[in-house]
Amino acid sequence: xxxxxxxxxxxxxxxxxxxxxxxxxxxxxxxxxxxxxxxxxxxxxxxxxxxxxxxxxxxxxxxxxxxxxxxxxxxxxxxxxxxxxxxxxxxxxxxxxxxxxxxxxxxxxxxxxxxxxxxxxxxxxxxxxxxxxxxxxxxxxxxxxxxxxxxxxxxxxxxxxxxxxxxxxxxxxxxxxxxxxxxxxxxxxxxxxxxxxxxxxxxxxxxxxxxxxxxxxxxxxxxxxxx
Length: 227
Fold this sequence. Notes:
227 residues, mainly alpha, Four Helix Bundle (Hemerythrin (Met), subunit A), 2 domains, two-stranded antiparallel ribbon, 9 helices, 2 strands, globular
């Protein structure tokens, strides 16, 4: 029975992603953002439970990627599509460029499954972090509508995030092999600062957290090389 627990959690990730997409098409991007958070929790615990129970399997790996391409690929594409549809665009076809995020998320997940360099850390931005960033934009829109309603800004973000997904930038995973301070001090500091920022700013903190994540990854791997 225990071998089915990770796959059940993966299916819960997929279900939450599907619900988030329904609300995104309805224009309720707040519910969509919370669905992403729930998907992220299930996504973390499916891998965690597989390692804990020693029931990792090839079907679990494939199912995880298929669920992620929905929850962290199609879903952020729909959110960006909605934002572009509401922007100051001049063409009815421009919103469809949002699905570059979906395409590059799928490419990123396929690459991850085959790239032996990514067994412990990531090469390119992981899809859950990219999705969290995309779903944070409607919350920022409330305070800075002139920025988020700009078609040029949204197209630029779409291209930038698509590139980051398949880039060669090395980014650490938040899975801990040990809780040793020396080996994980950058991760611990990142998580602490991120928790404070999210507590203060909620979803609006996500862009800052993203920049901090990438910057701290450079620091983390530099420290690894030096040690």
